[in-house]
Amino acid sequence: MRDLKGRFDLLSINTATFGYQTELDKTVDLLASHNIGGIAPWRREVEAFGVDKAARLIRDAGLEVTGYCRSSYFPAATKEERLAAVQDNIKALEDAATLGADCFVAVVGSITHENPSLEDVRQQTLESLIQLAGRARELQVPIALEPLHPMYVGDRSCLSSLSQAIEWCDIIDAEHPGSVGIAADVYHLWWDPDLDKQLTQAGSRLLAYHVSDWLVPTEDLLTDRGMMGDGVIQLPTIRNSVERAGYNGLIEVEIFSSKNWWKKSPAETLRTCMERFQTHV
Ligand code: ZN
Question: N- or C-end of the chain: fewer Cβ atoms within 10 A?
């Protein structure tokens, strides 16, 4: 397993970790001034800043874009709406290419009142991903399927486990080779008794590795993620599996924390991320 002491070149910060407090240029400056290796920006801030300008800024700062966050949801009640969702994601995929992103992160969506069948929604999502994958292959920006914790199956993601993501990769890849992989996020996957085996099986499909921690008790399903070391996830054990599976890319910190970290300054949050990265990841 890699020794992370002083290896901030292997650290990437998902900008959500700072709670969207600052403009993209300030975030980039902060990361660059601490010799951080990577950034994972969100569409809202990149689009607000201007994609070309953002790409230049990030490139000039020497930061790797470990992922572009993220797809809009694919399932919809009508065929036209589903097609519009694919079009929206093609636009974002093109922006990911402009940014030179390692991957385009897909959080796929799930059932709705109009569209309540989980089985149908999964099938539709897979079909939409196959459509998007054609463009991903042309642009050479792979889609990173991010399975979310099953607690989000009611609203955010009909893709809930690593085994399901591997299965979808196999299906999509058969149509468009090299167009798809997986973003493995400990927050979503740590509970799975089969995790080590599935990470091994995922192997070269692993395009991104996201870390945070699971707090007990968790007070909010979306915005109460913990800093690494503050929760119950055995992070070094999982990283060992991830690296044994062949992943040697950057490690991205992604913390949604409305009650705690989002109330602190980005500089303070980054300082803690850097400490914990060396000791608890
Ligand atoms: Zn994630």
Answer: N
Report the separation in Å between the CA atom of 225 and the middle of ligand 1, taken as the mean of its atom positions. 11
CB 122 within 8 A of CB 161: no
DSSP structure string for 55-108: HHHHHHTT-EE--EE-PPP---SSHHHHHHHHHHHHHHHHHHHHHT-S-EEE--
Give the position of tokens 């803690």: 272
Distance (angstroms) between ligand 1 centre and the Cα of 253 equals 8
In angstroms, the Cα distances linking 119 to 110, 123, 158 are 10, 6, 9
Q: Quick check: 202 and 186 in contact, CB under 8 A?
A: no
The CB density around residue 271, as the number of other CB atoms within 10 Å, is 13
Contacts of 271 by beta carbon, 8 Å cutoff, 6+ apart: none
For the record, the structure tokens of 253 come out as: 């910190």
- Bridge partners of 209? 184, 251
* 6, 54, 103, 160, 199 from 241: Cα distances, Å: 22, 34, 21, 19, 7
* The overall pTM is greater than 0.85: yes
In angstroms, how far apart are the furthest CA atoms of the chain?
51
CA–CA gap between residue 114 and residue 77 (Å, rounded): 6
The alpha-helical segments, DSSP class H, found in the chain are 24-33, 43-49, 51-60, 79-99, 118-139, 162-175, 186-189, 195-202, 235-244, 266-279
CA 230 and chain centroid, separation: 21
How does pLDDT run across 165-222, given as a tens digit for each residue? 999 999 999 999 999 999 999 999 999 999 999 999 999 999 999 999 999 999 999 9
Residue 115 CA to ligand 1 centre (angstroms): 25
Q: Which residues contact 184 (CB under 8 A, 6 or more apart)?
A: 162, 199, 202, 206, 208, 209, 210, 242, 247
Residues 53-82 pLDDT 10s: 999 999 999 999 999 999 999 999 999 999
